[in-house]
Structures are given as C-alpha cells and as structure tokens.
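Table 4 source record.
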Amino acid sequence: MQFLPHCMFFSSCLVVTTTAFAPSFTVVNTNYLYQTFVKNPLRSVRVKSPFLKASDDDENESTSKKGDNKAMAFLRKVGRVGGAANMDFANAMGLDESPSGGTKSSYHEDGFKNVRKAKSAYIPCTTSGVIDDVTEPFPFTSSGSQWMGITDRVMGGVSNGSLSRETVQGKNANVLRGEVSLENNGGFIQMATDLALDPGMDPFVDASEFDGVELEVYCEGADVEEKFNVHLRNPACDRQFSSYRATFAIRPGQWATVRLTWDSFEGYGPGPSVTPFVPILRRLGVVAIGEAKSIVLAVGKVGFYRVI
C-alpha cells in the first residue's frame, strides 16, 4: 500500500493537490465517504463533491448508483478500500508541529483493517500509561488516537517517507521509512499522533503523574548509533513549528527501550523557548531530523512511565 502522491489527510478530510506545492486544494470528507460507501456499500445516496456529479432530487435510482460506483472507484484509487490500501506520504506536505497536517495511513501487511472501535472501548493513555502497544489495527493506537506521517514539504523541503505496520525481528511495530533531505531548508520526516481520546472535548491530556516517555524502538543504519527525536506539544506550543524536543540514540539492528524524562525536553520556537515544560500534552511525534540520510525506524510500543 503506497500513500497517494500530492495528497494529505487532515483529520477527517483528504486534501488533493495537482502539484506538490499547488496553492489551491480540493477537500473531500473521507470519513463521510467511508461511512457511506465502505460501512454501507449498498446504500444509495447522493453526494456533492468534485468527484461526483450532484444529483437532483428528481433523479432516479440508477443515477444514484452511478454516483456510488464513482465514489467507490475513488476510494479504491486512494487506497481507502480494496487491495490497493497501501499508501505513503512521499509527496505529502505537513507541518512538523502543526495542529493539522500530514497523512494518515491505512496499510497493514495483512490487508485492510482500519476499523475504529467506539471511543468507550479505548482506555485513555493517561489512565493506562500506554499510548500505543500496536494491538489495534493500523493506523489506530491502542489509546484510540491515530498515527499520521508528516514531511518537511510544506516549507519547501523534499524529504519523503512511508508509514506502515510490520513485523520486525518478531515484534509488531509501526515502521517509518524514508529519505531525509536538507535541500531547500528542509530536513525531517516523522510519525505523530494526537493523545486525547476525545479532542473535541479537550485536546490535551495531563501526564503529570508520570515521569517521562518510554519507547521500544529499532532502527537500521550504517553508523554505530543513530539519533532520533521525540517532539511533544503542549498549550505553550501555539505556533506551527513550536515544540519540546528530546534526542535519543540507539544501536542499529537491535531492539532497545528508551526512557526520556520530562526534564530532558527542551523548548524550541515561540512559546516553548521561554516557557518551562509541563506535561499537559496534545501531540507526540517520533522524528528523524537534521541529517540527510535514509531512515528505517520501528516503534513497537510508546507510552509514559513512572519511577517506582
């Protein structure tokens, strides 16, 4: 499954561009299309979108069915249904620390499985301490949020990548692959997830009862150690590229458990650079940044930890 070039998924919308840096966008509500044509594929409805001709109330059922077929063809094309559900974000644009941006994937090596449970079926990450233990169908986390891939292309960069669920040395993991380029003042790719189970009620979670972030990670690379970042956003991060960042280094070719204490996160950008960090969090990102290289980074589990 490859991510659709020149496309971005912003929460419930798909943004389609004709070029990587086109100033205008076409927006389609993919959640509506999913509920209409995937969950109820036999339902005959009328949809107004750039991909479907709007139906008048007096049009007959056959016209509606033609609209259904066009919508299903579109969904298959972008990988939301059927065997083509393999996407990358090679040409997607996203903001490194933006409120939105990036591309949400639907790829699992066993096929299309992205069926989300009711919110009540998930345990919030600040209750269990687990953000994701890769037990839910990709791209969903075990705490009810969703992974997305983000590149530097919004700022003119040319980095590219893909995000998928794979088995790495016997362990299930979300795998970030790609090429980080420093051209055009770019230089990052990342996998990120919001943390709140119901962002509409409150976009932040209070992780102050924990002592930091813990990850199970694996990478490939030619160096003795490979460095990556964890980026966190809290209420002080009200600008697009603002975040609190911590760096970790791991040896390629073997799984490792990394712990990052709260006091290891340093503020970058307007807001965080002058505001002490507090773990009231909205988003977590695992980032390859600042060095031109090929990336293979697997994250098996991510969450919070306590020192007992």
